[in-house]
Amino acid sequence: MEGNSITVQHLCSDPSFIRWVEGRATQNEEKSWNEWVQKNEENRRLAIEAQQRISGFVFDEPALPDVQEEWSKVHHRVTAKEQAEAKVTNLGNGKSWDAVSVLYKVAAVLLVGAFVGFAAYIFQESNQVKQEVAVHTVTTDYGETKTLNLSDGSQIILAANSQLSFKENWLEQPTKRLSLDGEAFFAVAPKKAKTHPKLEVETEDGTASVWGTRFTVDTYVEGTRVVLEEGEVEVRTIQDKRMTMNPGEMATFQKESSEIQLQKVNPRVYTSWSTNELFFDDTPLSVLVNRIKRTYGVKVKVQNPEILRKKLSGSVDFKSLDGLTDAVAKIFDIQIEQSEDGLIINNNKKG
Amino acid sequence: MTFEGRESTGNGYAESRQLWEQFLGGDLEAWERIFTLFYKDLYGYGLKLSARPELTKDCIQELFVVLWERRDHLDEVQSIKAYLLASLRRKLLKRLKKKRKHFTSLEQEDTSHSVDIQFSPEELIIKRERENSKLQALYEAFDALPDRQKEVLYLKYFNGMSYEEIQEILEISYQSIRNHIYRAVKRLRNILNENISEITISLLPFLFSFLFGI
């Protein structure tokens, strides 16, 4: 027989092939048919057809979705992510802004209702300048942080599962404005003239204005929480209630209320994640559990809720979920099991 | 005939090899080619495993995003198709397991760790119209097969996978794949044999040729 003239007919009448189809072939026969079918897609096609004839039945072909459309979703996700990453690495040197403008379309898609306050602000602004200004977004996945180094020495560290948006020309503005959903740490280089704030971080609940300082903002809890480590921050709610914060204070405010709650805290407990460690100061386990949940996107099941009230001081490595759970288990003397569904926290049976 | 005679031309193998290399090198168009080439197989298999079109579409999408992001860490693969089917299977079962656990905990049932996949018996089609009388019997016979045997048969007959590729996809031993195929075919043949008496005589020679390989 000619090498390339094999047909379905041949296969169907070849006892050795039929034995292979029915799982009765000798080892040698199996080996060569296995190799033959893997050799190329044409052989595979012939094998499929012959096997269906031999067995006498076929499986129904599924009603396919629009493959082109399915691909475009993959394509979109792949390119959006790469452009966002390219932009973060570009932020530091400050000269690659053209490359960044590609992101506009993507960013516009990502901006959703949570940014009502910010959207209104852009609208106002663009009316004045009579031209649209592109908005850029940096997002992080679970278990991921991103660091933005600005040319003036300021640093922004975006926590896991968070999103930061800013207008294309924000760095040229006297007051640099950012919009945040999630959590970020800001270390802003001090400024000499105090005529206007250095940086403003907007959330849906209000704004934190900054004159050179170290602080964190997060929107994970109900409302927005600002913790000041060093320097000076003014918070302003969406209802225009203002308050100046001192270092070591935590301000909490919601869009529904005009009140700002002020609380004395150890700021390191709230800012230490930005240096890949977690610091506690008489902090209950529940605080830590919440942070693990939102950073790694895992579910946490606690067998005995009493454990959550355990308080402790110290610090743990925060780089990986594995390292973190090991350390937390040791410090709190508990058992943390990793399962498909998330973490399971238990009393230490040995203890 | 000799095994040497089974060589066939066609550069499908070399071509898909090349596609994979281009993909590893960051060629998004090559990745799209791979996506289009194997989408039908992936989707069909995913549906058989889960009977959930949306979940299947989701997992395939996710698979292609994740593999693209990890392409720097990926190696050459023996068989792209087997590699993709295996990855999709793992992903799907993980998602299904999560859901199932959720349900069982709601109903306070004990959570057994067995992964019993719901291999939904989609339409089986009898190749020749004349044999439609057997359809019901075949349905029932096929449906009664253990999940593993159905899955092995599906991968083999519908996707044309070799034993080794099935081994890679299902992560079970080579010998057990042999056994699964042998037993499944035997059971199907038994059922169909019983049925032969009811089938018109004109069909007999035909049937024998494909049931017994004469």
UniProtKB/TrEMBL annotation, chain A:
The chain crosses the membrane at residues 102-123. Keywords: Membrane, Transmembrane, Transmembrane helix. Coiled coil: none annotated. PANTHER family: PERIPLASMIC SIGNAL SENSOR AND SIGMA FACTOR ACTIVATOR FECR-RELATED, PROTEIN FECR. This is FecR domain-containing protein. InterPro entries: FecR (IPR006860), FecR_C (IPR032508), Ferrdict_sens_TM (IPR012373). Residues 278-345 form the Protein FecR C-terminal domain. It comes from Fodinibius salsisoli. Residues 137-234 form the FecR protein domain.
UniProtKB/TrEMBL annotation, chain B:
Residues 35-101 form the RNA polymerase sigma-70 region domain. Keywords: Sigma factor, Transcription, Transcription regulation. The keyword Cell membrane does not apply. SUPFAM superfamilies: Sigma2 domain of RNA polymerase sigma factors (SSF88946), Sigma3 and sigma4 domains of RNA polymerase sigma factors (SSF88659). Residues 136-188 form the RNA polymerase sigma factor 70 region 4 type domain. Belongs to the sigma-70 factor family. ECF subfamily. This is Sigma-70 family RNA polymerase sigma factor. InterPro entries: RNA_pol_sigma-70-like (IPR039425), RNA_pol_sigma-70_dom (IPR014284), RNA_pol_sigma70_r2 (IPR007627), RNA_pol_sigma70_r4_t2 (IPR013249), RNA_pol_sigma_r2 (IPR013325), RNA_pol_sigma_r3/r4-like (IPR013324), WH-like_DNA-bd_sf (IPR036388). It holds the Pfam family Sigma70_r2. The lineage of its organism: Bacteria, Pseudomonadati, Balneolota, Balneolia, Balneolales. CDD domains: Sigma70_r4 (cd06171).
